[in-house]
Amino acid sequence: MREITHLTAIDMRRALDDRALSVVDVVQAHLEQIEAGAAVNAVVTVDPEGALARARELDAQGPDPELPLFGLPIGVKDTHDTAGVRTTYGSIRHRAHVPPRDAAHVRRMREAGAVIVGKTNVPEYAAGSHTVNRVFGPTRNPYALDRSAGGSSGGAAAALAARQVALADGSDMGGSLRNPASFCNVVGLRPSPGIVPASDAANLLSPLTTAGPMGRTVDDVALLLSVIGRPDSRTPSWASGPVERPTDGSLRGVRVGWAPTLGGRIPVDSEVLEVLEDAVRVFADAGAEVVEACPDLDGATEAFLTLRAAEFEAEWGDQLARDPEDFNDRITWNIERGRELSGRDVMRAQEQQTRIIRAGADFFSDVDVLLSPAAQVAPFPVTLDYPHEVAGQTQQHYLDWMRAATAITMLGVPAISVPAGFTAAGLPVGLQIASRIGTDASLLGTARIYEALTDFGSRAPAGA
């Protein structure tokens, strides 16, 4: 069964089309892999009966070119509703919650022939880039079980790395697709805002948060995006879809901006920078024009923290007042910061984000892609709540060490984390590549070329 779980989603789909594999074979292999890798704690609610029943239905129906995800086992993030399957949001308040309907993009995955095998672990309410909660405990990094898998889509990234699912969804406010992809040697794409419709359950049209795809290869991510990245008339969009799979191309003549510390705005551990310097040389050796350059991100951190706190207070402020034990200390702190804000504070943060977005548009008129760290540190010990120091600089709170990702969020552009190599200790490092809003397909094309030139993503964890 190991041979099946090590196939890419694209190759798995091809084998299902040719009937070289049955859907039951594929699903059973992944269910066994989940059981064998239980120590990783990535897929926290498993639905073997439902998944195998769906597999038998699909086998009886036969391959269908109109079902691009036909027979592919998928893990769904535990903050995304799945009809009839427990969805806890990583919260003790919802530990037994079973939604009556799917989130919008989950429904699209089912309709495209995907088989949902289970729910992937998250931090409490998906807050933070370290996946641990009071319902299921921590998700561990498949490359080193004593290390974090990142977050908030840490269960998704770890499940992919451990070969427990073929594809996974995630979401990203301040790096929750990109950070765990970096930590787990997989690919995570934050699409252009509006490409993936907001969940039916979403109360806010957020300028920060979007769902997105994760996979072990760029083509796998592009396949999933082609399904979930379609316009929805109920969701006002910044960027229009659909997003097709990227075309082949070359890096020759591509204008690349390299911002190792985002223009001196963030600390980055030296072991991460050493890996990423090699990644940048790959672009240069392939004929890209590389210059050290960064868009104007002044004020990005302050605006992000303001908008995030305002969203947290709007969504959970009343619940915190009623049931303060429902939240951990970090989320409580974030909600309380939101209570201190005025309407003027929020409007000024929105004005600042608008200025940053316009500065980014100017930057990408001269530069095709921006390279930067997806995470400022390599995977840290799973027992830590967050890294309290980065490159010798004290981090003030649980969001401070995530600025490599949160600053790019404020640009309002698509950004992808692709495997870039490993530290001397064998821990994964991801390269963040960003491009102009709406250029998701060409961004995927650039990432695919880099992936082909390096192939770090094919290195599986021991025992997977």
From TrEMBL:
<dbReference type="InterPro" id="IPR036928">
    <property type="entry name" value="AS_sf"/>
</dbReference>
<dbReference type="Pfam" id="PF01425">
    <property type="entry name" value="Amidase"/>
</dbReference>
<feature type="domain" description="Amidase">
    <location>
        <begin position="25"/>
        <end position="444"/>
    </location>
</feature>
<dbReference type="InterPro" id="IPR000120">
    <property type="entry name" value="Amidase"/>
</dbReference>
<dbReference type="GO" id="GO:0003824">
    <property type="term" value="F:catalytic activity"/>
</dbReference>
<protein>
    <submittedName>
        <fullName>Amidase</fullName>
    </submittedName>
</protein>
<dbReference type="InterPro" id="IPR020556">
    <property type="entry name" value="Amidase_CS"/>
</dbReference>
<dbReference type="InterPro" id="IPR023631">
    <property type="entry name" value="Amidase_dom"/>
</dbReference>
